[in-house]
Design brief:
By secondary structure, the protein is an all-alpha fold. The protein has one domain: Up-down Bundle (Four Helix Bundle (Hemerythrin (Met), subunit A)), CATH 1.20.120.450. The chain contains six helices and no strands. The longest helix is centred in the N-terminal third of the chain and has 24 residues. It is globular. The chain starts with a helix and ends in a 9-residue tail after the last helix.
Length: 166
């Protein structure tokens, strides 16, 4: 197996494992508290699930642009993050918990499948925002899931700074 293919496969495995941990942590959320604010700032568990779904789609968009030779069109920069997150938060309030879960599952599967099919050589490609494809996969995928898994776990233990915002 080539080094690039192995790197891609490790990213797929890391994405799946991080998502499994996130879903596992959410399974401990009392259904009556799933829409209660306070998990991360004013966000509920439902809001967080919708948030993660958005960023999985964002990562999949980057992969699709890279695969189609249009990676330069990926122009996201971190100065947009807060505004994007506010839009996602506002839209999440209209979702039922099940709709949020379904949205996240579809987005995750799209991201995972696009990554699994990606030409491994494209992981090193630089996108329009200056990040490598691999970096976008990491920050929209495994690292993002891991961050929010810790938020969910900390919510139950009281160790989180409740004003912590993504």
């Amino acid at each position: 197996m080539s080094a690039g293919r192995e790197r891609r496969d490790v990213l797929v495995t890391d994405l799946e494992a991080a998502r499994d941990a996130f879903v596992g942590a959410l399974a401990d959320v009392d259904p009556d508290l799933f829409t209660a604010p306070g998990l991360v700032g004013d966000w509920s568990a439902r809001d967080l699930v919708a948030h993660v779904a958005f960023w999985c789609d964002h990562g999949a968009d980057a992969l699709e642009l890279a695969a189609s030779g249009k990676g330069a069109d990926f122009d996201y920069d971190t100065s947009q993050t807060d505004a994007i997150n506010e839009e996602v938060f506002a839209g999440a309030s209209t979702l039922t918990p099940m709709e949020a879960y379904e949205r996240e599952q579809v987005a995750f599967e799209r991201f995972r499948d696009d990554l699994a099919e990606l030409d491994p050589a494209l992981l090193a490609a630089t996108l329009g925002n200056g990040d490598s494809v691999a970096a976008v996969v990491r920050y929209d995928g495994p690292d993002h899931y891991a961050e929010h898994t810790e938020h969910v776990r900390a919510w139950f233990t009281g160790r989180a700074d409740r004003d912590d915002e993504d």
